[in-house]
Amino acid sequence: MTQQRTFSGGARSKNLLYLKSPVRPDDAGYRVGFLLLEHFSLAAFTASLDTLVTANLIEAGRYQVRTFGLGTEQVLSDLGILIQVDALLDGAALGQIDRLMVCGGFRTPLRVDPVLEKLLHDTGRRGLELGGLWNGAWFLAHCGLLDGYRCAVHPENRASLGEARVRVGVTPASYVIDRDRATAASPNGSFAMMLELIRLRHGDSLAQGVEQILAFEGLRFRRIGSAQAQKLTEPLRNAIDLMENNLEEPLELDRLADYVGRSRRQIDRLFQDQLGTSPHRYYLELRITESRRLLQHSRLSIMDVAVACGFVSVSHFSKCYSGYFGYPPSREQRLAD
Question: Residue 166 to residues 54, 142, 200: CA-CA distances in angstroms?
Answer without folding.
Answer: 38, 11, 29
